[in-house]
Amino acid sequence: MExxxxxxxENKCELCESGEPLNTYSVIPQKVPNEDNTILICxxxxxxxxxxxxxxxxxxxxxxxxxxxVVPGVQVLSWRLLNxxxxxxxxxxxxxxxxxxxxxxxxxxxxxxxxxxxxxxLHRDSNGAILETGNTVVLTKTLDVKGxxxxxxxxxxxxxxRLVENNTDQIEGKIEGQVIVILTKYVRKQGA
Length: 192
Ligand SMILES: [Zn+2]
Known about the structure:
- By secondary structure, this protein is of the alpha+beta class.
- The chain has two domains: 2-119, no CATH class; 137-189, SH3 Domains (SH3 type barrels, Roll), CATH 2.30.30.40.
- The protein has seven helices and ten strands.
- The strands form four sheets. The chain has a three-stranded antiparallel β-sheet with strand order 6-3-10, with no helix packed on it. Strands 7-8-9 form a three-stranded antiparallel β-sheet, with no helix packed on it.
- The chain binds zinc ion.
- Zinc ion (ZN) binds next to strand 2 and helix 2.
């Protein structure tokens, strides 16, 4: 099937059309993988879908083109990503322009519900904003680092945080050369 997909996509990411190394991506939920629900995407797009990189609106502008794809999987994924961004005018405009037949819309919606369940398992800052690996945060409380004399002052900026897996209350950040665990309730996301 991969060969067929490469031919269809002309060796380009089916979301952003970049020629970066491509991998197959299964658009869930699906019973049997086929050419409708399997697409080829680049790592950058995958990171956006899987939220392993900060949301990159510039990159995701590619969705305003990908919504016109004839491939159902591409339509569904574009629709879901746009839904995440629908607070932005350009994204809600693109959603308005989209037409999905009933079956495709139901499929798109089904995945969105799944995403929402997953959303409960996301790392959030003290204001409820979603934290992602690579974000910059500001401490909202002075913290004493366990097992050291290091005290990190309120207002300290921590760049390039990492999310602690399986614990949405914790992130990791480097302060004065030390990686420390920080509770998400004591941080505020900066920018974006
Ligand atoms: Zn891409």
